[in-house]
UniProtKB/TrEMBL annotation:
GO CC annotation: cytosol
Keywords annotated in UniProt: Amino-acid biosynthesis, Aromatic amino acid biosynthesis, Oxidoreductase
Pathway(s) served: Metabolic intermediate biosynthesis; chorismate biosynthesis; chorismate from D-erythrose 4-phosphate and phosphoenolpyruvate: step 4/7
InterPro entries xref list: Aminoacid_DH-like_N_sf, NAD(P)-bd_dom_sf, Shikimate_DH-bd_N, Shikimate_DH_fam
Domain (Shikimate dehydrogenase substrate binding N-terminal) ranges: 6-87
Name of the protein: Shikimate dehydrogenase
Gene Ontology terms for molecular function: NADP binding; shikimate 3-dehydrogenase (NADP+) activity
GO biological process, any: chorismate biosynthetic process
PANTHER family given in the database record: BIFUNCTIONAL 3-DEHYDROQUINATE DEHYDRATASE_SHIKIMATE DEHYDROGENASE, CHLOROPLASTIC, SHIKIMATE DEHYDROGENASE
Keyword Membrane: no
Signal peptide: none
Length: 244
C-alpha cells in the first residue's frame, strides 16, 4: 500500500484529502490512500515518517516553516522562502518542495496584463510567502496591507486613496476573510474605486465566488479564485512524491 497525506492543524476543511481520494478513484489507483494527520506539535512528524509505506505528504498551517529542520534536502524555492508545503520520502530522506509557488504562478499569470506593475497583498497568512516569491520573479512590486501596519506596510485606510489604487492594479487576498461559513465578509477596501484596470485574486476557494471577487467583478475587474492554485499545487505534489 502506498500512503500519502497532509500534516497541519486544524484539518477539518482540508482540500487535499477529497482531491486525492477522487483522483485515486478516477485513475483506479487501488493501492493508494491519503490520510489527514492533525499533529499537536511538529515533533510528531517523527512517528509519521517511521511508516515505511508513507511516500510523501503535504503541509499546511502551522507547519510550513516548522518542517524545515526535518528536511534532508530542499528545493531552491524552499530555501529562498523558508517555507515547504510538500515532502517526498525517498530511501529515508525527506526532500522538501514548495508547490504553492507553481500553483500560484500558473493560475495567476493568465489574467495578468502588461500594465500590471504594482500589487497589494491583503494579509500575511496561508501562502503569502509563495505569492511574494512569484511577484518578485515576475517583476511586480508589492506592499502588504495590514490592520496594524509596520513602516513597510499600508493600512486599510491608506489603500482607500484613489491615487494609490490607480497605481496598485493587482490586489491579492491572502487572508481567510470571506471563507465559508463567513462568506458574507470581505476585505475592507474601496471597491467603488475599482475599474476594469484592476485584477483581484483570492486565495480563498470556498465559496468559489467570494464577496471580494463579486465586488471586483461588479466594477469590471478581472478576477480569479484560489481553486486552480490548489489543484495545480496538488498535481505538482503528486509528481514530486512519485519521482524516481
Amino acid at each position: 500500500m502506498k500512503k500519502y497525506g497532509i500534516i497541519g492543524r486544524p484539518l477539518g476543511h482540508s482540500f487535499s484529502k477529497k482531491y486525492f481520494e477522487d483522483k485515486f478513484a478516477e485513475e483506479a489507483l487501488s493501492d493508494c490512500v491519503f490520510e489527514n494527520h492533525e499533529l499537536e506539535t511538529i515533533d510528531q512528524v517523527k512517528t509519521l515518517i517511521s511508516d515505511p509505506d508513507l511516500k510523501g505528504f503535504c503541509i499546511t498551517i502551522p507547519y510550513k516553516r516548522a518542517i524545515i529542520p526535518y528536511l534532508t534536502e530542499m528545493s531552491d524555492a524552499v530555501r529562498a522562502m523558508d517555507a515547504c508545503n510538500c515532502v517526498q520520502i525517498k530511501k529515508g530522506k525527506l526532500i522538501g518542495y514548495n508547490t504553492d509557488v507553481i500553483g500560484f504562478e500558473q493560475s495567476f499569470v493568465p489574467q495578468l496584463n502588461k500594465n500590471d506593475h504594482y500589487a497589494l497583498i491583503l494579509g500575511t497568512g496561508g501562502a503569502a510567502s509563495a505569492v511574494c516569491y512569484v511577484l518578485e520573479k515576475l517583476g511586480l512590486a508589492y506592499k502588504f496591507v495590514s490592520r496594524s501596519p509596520s513602516n513597510e506596510q499600508f493600512s486599510y485606510e491608506e489603500i482607500k486613496s484613489p491615487e494609490l489604487l490607480k497605481q496598485y492594479t493587482v490586489i491579492i487576498n491572502c487572508s481567510p476573510v470571506g471563507t465559508y461559513p463567513k462568506e458574507e465578509q470581505a476585505p475592507d477596501i474601496a471597491y467603488d474605486l475599482l475599474t476594469e484596470q484592476h485584477y483581484l485574486y483570492d486565495l480563498v476557494y470556498n465559496p468559489p465566488l467570494t464577496r471580494f471577487l463579486q465586488n471586483g467583478q461588479a466594477n469590471g475587474a478581472r478576477i480569479q479564485n484560489g481553486y486552480p492554485m490548489l489543484a495545480i499545487q496538488a498535481e505538482a505534489n503528486w509528481v514530486n512524491w512519485n519521482k524516481e
